[in-house]
Amino acid sequence: MKTIQSISLLVMAATLLIGCTADEPKRSYAEESEINCIIGDGTLLTLNELKQAPYMTEKGNYVDPALYRLRTNATGHTGAYAYLDTVFVFALDTIPTDKPLYIRGRITTDDIGGNFYKSLCIQQIVNGKQQALRISVDAGSVGGMYQIGQEILIRVDGLAIGRYANQPQLCVPSYNNNTYATNYKQKTGWAPGRIPFSEFKRRTSLIGLPQTPYCDTILISDVVTATPNIIDARLKDGCLVCVKDVHYTGKYTDKDSCTTGNPASDGNANVFAPTTNNIGYPQSRVIADDNNKEIMVSNSEYAKFARFYLPGADNTGVSNCSKYKGNVVGILGYYYDNNYNTKSTYNPAWDDWSITIRSLDDLQLTDSKGNLWPRLEYGTITL
Length: 383
Fold this sequence. Notes:
- The protein is of the alpha+beta class.
- It has helices at 2-19, 35-39, 47-50, 184-187, 197-203, 230-236; strands at residues 43-44, 91-94, 101-107, 119-126, 129-138, 151-155, 160-164, 167-176, 189-193, 195-196, 204-207, 216-218, 240-248, 283-288, 294-299, 325-334, 353-356, 363-366.
């Protein structure tokens, strides 16, 4: 009887399923025609409007700038760099809540490769030119929901716009009082922090389906100048670019060549990002064009490809790096840190500029025969 009863129940369930008409799945994104309805009586800002006064000011408006990180502001600059005494590279402005404010942009990064941990970049094309912004989000795999090419609309009033080492980002205020951190005196104080993921989701709407992001094709000389202005650099920061006709030099500064050491212990090893002994600063390697103009390519030691050899490098050295030429795609940045707020001789330099790649696919480098550079991880023996 139990067997007959079970069969009868299965037949009834199948009959009910056949007779049902499933509802159409609801769209998880908004159409362009719906954006004005979402914004309502609010204001839609361009990304550069949010990155400038009155929303982002120089000293910021969050509590007392004296409580910012020690290296927020420097003194003692003279001549062409005297303006730096009035520049705050770690600062916060709370975004007013008197009316709804929105921004929109297309996502240009993901965190799959590990170079954009708990962060993303968005771009907006205004009058044919790219604007960009970094966003700090407290989610370990934010790219799973917000993938490259997806356009998003974000309500920003009540959040903050801040600068971390001069790089503007949408954020929340965060106070670090970790006295056990490396260089804790420099790290203690207010600085941009990550937006809680639940809050970011509540404020964010998807617009349409993902499309290929726009990419500016540039030469190194288009951004690297002898006397860079770190205030102007804020508007370029975060843009997706393709740097043309370059190659890796095999160096980690303009003078010093990478070594063949173990990247687990040698911070100058000839891989993309060897150890920083868990301090966590970006590791940079130099690329150059045929005119010897140089710029850094920045990577995290926690990236999945951190211990892959540089293009043309191997266990024997870096002599073949210049043989692989082509384009490097990534996020343009200008990372400027005053170090101390005492008298400083630290001036803006070419190597504060960097390109941060999203994955090894961003390196479009080949030899003279058109062969892609071999991807070799440290420890691979070449004959």
